[in-house]
Amino acid sequence: MMDCKQILSEVSNYLDGDLSKEVKQAVEGHLGKCTRCSLVYSTTRETLRIVSDCGVFTIPVAEGTRLRARLKELFVQG
């Protein structure tokens, strides 16, 4: 079973469909049980959809730094 930290590192690979069958099943199993990781996955997927629909988008440095810090806080402590 994968933990939240491992799931976070695989979200982009999962979204790209770039996982082995076993890892994909492990990610899906975790997402089905963990509300926090499921939320990260769904918001990441939706953000990518929005960004790809509207062209180039760059997260301002301050917001990107705060986002990474918050995600680290959630997944390192959780």
Mean pLDDT: 86
Binned, the helix content reads over 70%
Q: Radius of gyration, Cα only, in angstroms?
A: 13 Å
Q: Which stretches are poorly predicted, pLDDT < 50 over at least 5 residues?
A: none
Number of domains in the coordinates? 1
Q: How are helices and strands ordered from N to C? A: HHHH
Q: Which sheet architecture does the biggest sheet show? A: none
Calculate the terminal CA-CA distance, rounded to whole Å. 16 Å
The count of DSSP E runs of length 2 or more, i.e. the number of strands, is: 0
Strand content: under 5%
Shape type: globular
Give the CATH class. Answer: Mainly Alpha
- What structural class do the secondary elements suggest? mainly alpha
CATH architecture: Orthogonal Bundle
CATH fold node name:
Arc Repressor Mutant, subunit A
Brief overview, please?
With 78 residues, this protein is mainly α. The chain contains four helices and no strands. Helix 1 packs across helix 2, helix 1 runs parallel beside helix 3 (35-54) and helix 2 (21-33) crosses helix 3.
